[in-house]
Design brief:
about 130 residues, mainly alpha, 4 helices, 2 strands, about 30% helix
Length: about 130
């Protein structure tokens, strides 16, 4: 950082938490990985940490499209990788809402896939280890 600090991060806590604090296991795991890559970090002091809740679907794929409620559209469930795909997803969702129909490229991500058991498996795309 501009203050001479090192910022590290990544991964998901091994425990299901609904908090903005991570566990000691998670902090230790991140620190071990950083020291493995950059041995000069051995002995550094943890100053602060951030954590957050990610919305992830059972098949690791987002939900995009209409909801059962009138005029309520869904674009959620991206988990830990949504920030990389949201520019194009936003464009496609705008198209969906403006035209009132789902583009073919978004159809596999519809909410109904959970009712019809047409689940996707995007675990490789998410680089999720969980």
């Amino acid at each position: 950082s501009s203050r001479g600090e090192v910022v590290i991060g990544g991964g998901s806590d091994p425990y299901q938490l609904y908090s903005t604090r991570s566990t000691l296991d998670m902090k230790e795991h991140l620190a071990e990985g950083a020291v493995h890559l950059f041995p000069f970090l051995q002995g550094v002091r943890l100053l602060r940490q951030w954590a957050g809740i990610t919305d992830m679907t059972p098949d690791y794929s987002p939900i995009m499209g209409a909801s059962p409620l009138t005029n309520l559209w869904l674009d959620c469930g991206w988990g830990t990788w949504g920030f990389k795909a949201t520019p194009v997803a936003g464009k496609r969702m705008a198209q969906t809402i403006a035209e009132g129909r789902m583009p073919d490229i978004l159809k596999p991500f519809a909410l109904e896939r959970f009712e019809t058991f047409r689940l996707l498996n995007e675990m490789g795309a998410t680089a999720a280890s969980h």
